[in-house]
Design a protein that fits this description.
With 165 residues, the chain is of the alpha+beta class. The protein has a single domain, classed as Jelly Rolls (Sandwich). The protein is 19% helix and 34% strand. The protein is built from two helices and ten strands; from the N terminus they run H-E-E-E-E-E-E-E-E-E-E-H. The N and C termini lie far apart (35 Å).
Length: 165
């Protein structure tokens, strides 16, 4: 039996806080070529995950919130936000499934946030993600502005749906 517990969440969060990228995975899959990738994904606020999609091969991705709050954002091919959802276990909003070939990103809204992520494998770094050309690359100066604009749009979408943050 493989366990997910407070100790592992805390250790992974501590590593995320010390990481230059402000995020850290804890893999449950034994090898990168495992057909089902399973991991904790600890993401701190201000971490930037460039919008990307999984295709060639197509991969479905699932995020389940274990602690904290995260916004999952879906974009169309032109970079417009088409949907978003706030993951917050305290509000009964536990997770989302992202279909293959869908541009998406995750934004942490709270320190110590951790999601359980499940994705089709295998993981091959060269083929795993197709990054959006319309979004800043990781490390570029405009990433914080991109995050801020994305969250502003997600607030508008959530408000229109009658959902509170």
């Amino acid at each position: 039996m493989i366990r997910i517990n407070q100790t592992i969440l805390d250790k992974t969060t501590k590593k995320a806080r010390l990481s230059d990228r402000l995020r850290m995975n804890f893999n449950y899959h034994p090898q990168l070529d495992d057909p089902m990738q399973r991991m904790l994904n600890a993401i701190e606020p201000h971490s930037y995950i460039q919008p990307h999609k999984h295709e060639d091969p197509d991969k479905t991705e699932v995020f389940l919130i274990l602690r904290g709050r995260m916004m999952v954002v879906e974009f169309n091919e032109q970079g417009e936000i088409v949907d978003c959802d706030l993951l917050d276990a305290n509000r009964g909003r536990y997770g989302v499934e992202i279909p293959p070939r869908t541009f998406h990103s995750i934004i942490s809204l709270e320190e110590g946030s951790v999601a359980y992520e499940i994705k089709n494998g295998p993981y091959l770094a060269i083929e795993d993600k197709c990054f959006a050309s319309w979004a800043p690359k990781e490390g570029e100066a405009t990433t914080r502005q991109f995050i801020s604009q994305s969250l502003k749009r997600c607030r508008e979408i959530s408000k229109a749906k009658g959902l509170k943050w």
